[in-house]
Amino acid sequence: MKKSIMMLSATLMLGGVASAQKVAFEEYDLDNGMHVILHHDASAPVVITSVMYHVGAKDENPDRTGFAHFFEHLLFEGTENIKRGEWFKIVTSNGGTNNANTTDDRTYYYEIFPSNNLELGLWMESERLMHPIINKIGVDTQNEVVKEEKRTSYDNRPYGNILAAVKENMFKNHPYRWTTIGAMKDLDAATLDEFQAFNKKFYLPNNAVLVVAGDFEKKQAKEWIQKYFGPIAKGEVVPKKTYLEEPITQTIKATYEDPNIQIPMLVASYRTPSMKTRDARVLDLISSYLSDGKSSKLYKKVVDDKKMALQVGAVGFSQEDYGMYILYGLPMGTFTTTDVLKEIDEEIVKIQTDLISENDYQKLQNKFDNNFVDTNSTIEGIANNLASYYLLYKDVNLINTEIELYHSITREEIRAVAKKYLNPNQRLLLDYIPAKAKPLN
Length: 441
Prior knowledge:
Blueprint lengths: L1 H19 L5 E4 L5 E6 L5 E8 L13 H8 L12 H7 L3 E6 L4 E8 L3 H13 L5 H20 L6 H9 L13 H6 L2 H11 L5 E7 L3 H12 L22 E7 L6 E9 L4 H14 L5 H9 L3 E9 L4 E10 L5 H17 L4 H18 L3 H13 L6 H11 L2 H11 L5 E8 L7
Parallel strand pairs: 2-6, 7-11
Antiparallel strand pairs: 1-2, 3-5, 3-6, 4-5, 8-10, 8-11, 9-10
């Protein structure tokens, strides 16, 4: 009886958390097809203007990889009305910050200003869309910037190419098989005309969502949005291609040699369904249960208790078409990657065979409620979520209701989904090993 009362109390508390975090918003379309979302929050005198474009690495040609990420850099070069090198100066001199990021599925730009600079933020983002200058000096400059990023963040970083090695083995047809950074040879071979064509093809008002969030007056904001974005011509949005991957029915084995490491790493990767599916959300819970932090089952067992590994964990990649669940481990001492894999597989079999405990289930729910609160705790987080839920999920209100989907997942579903996706014949086993020393000539 006491346990039932505690569970009821926890449920009521979680419901209160979800309710208290409700995000109010208004959405509408401009005549040119640009979607607009407004979220008013006067708790701090700041405002964010952000634009998310439905273009990512998966929209590139196989011999011109890296274009979407390259534009994340290139479109800060300047416009017809913002001189080259002036973008960041304008932002900082007006008390603001800005950034951008790219994934396989979308590209996102934003500025955060004091609330009295909303018009400036809207004008700058409209300039990026309406009047970008894409010329040789900008392309050459950013080519060097991207090359340096690839060297420091991937090629010269220990274990920096794990994702590249996994993706090229997990996908055969889908453009997810390459990374967002792309191949430098593709960028080197590209012509200025190709860069300009990419911009014309994807940087369209009707291929984007504009989010204004923070402290602003709605009537005035709508007038400025119409003033700066309304005149931009609507374009022809190219339909997204569908790429189907054959199910993995036999273990894929691969090896990658990294000259920057001394300890081999075990990598086991499973292909998962679109992030929009219920199964993907169940897998989120499974991932957290197995490998999220030092209190997870795998870390406590393999690192703390048995001291077989320096580290064990997982990375989940939730994407628009497919996802990946990547488990990894760094063996310690005389233990091998095979030893670590055996321990991981034992924990997966337990989930597939038995229901996780009520206590563990409640811990998961609490953790996801905390994550829900955290992601909507800042204006930046809210703006990003509003844009993502519209562009990738086609349901903005998921910013308020997705947590209810996680609440509705049962222990029985967790067991069933683990059985469905996390089997030895459905994965990639990657030996990520130190590169062999080359003999001296």
